[in-house]
Write a sequence for this structure.
């Protein structure tokens, strides 16, 4: 992927200095930063989903059927997916 990022002179100089310190070309250094941020974001989403599922599980009434639990899980996933809809800018 190729893209252009407009940075302030200060931020561009800082990025170039950090890339030099890491002995990497600035574009590769920036790609590493973005990849790390995306991976971190994914881990956080997984952690939040796990926490939500734990919360849901703690509220399951004894005697709840597997079908009822699956339906509740599907409802929760549908709710999350609705909030994830991206709007064009």
């Amino acid at each position: 992927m190729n893209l252009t990022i407009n940075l302030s002179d200060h931020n561009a100089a800082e990025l170039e200095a950090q890339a030099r310190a890491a002995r990497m070309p600035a574009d590769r250094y920036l790609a590493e930063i973005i990849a790390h941020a995306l991976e971190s974001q994914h881990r956080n989403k997984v952690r939040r989903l796990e926490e939500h599922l734990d919360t849901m599980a703690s509220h399951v009434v004894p005697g709840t059927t597997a079908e009822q639990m699956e339906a509740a899980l599907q409802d929760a996933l549908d709710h999350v997916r609705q909030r994830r809809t991206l709007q064009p800018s």
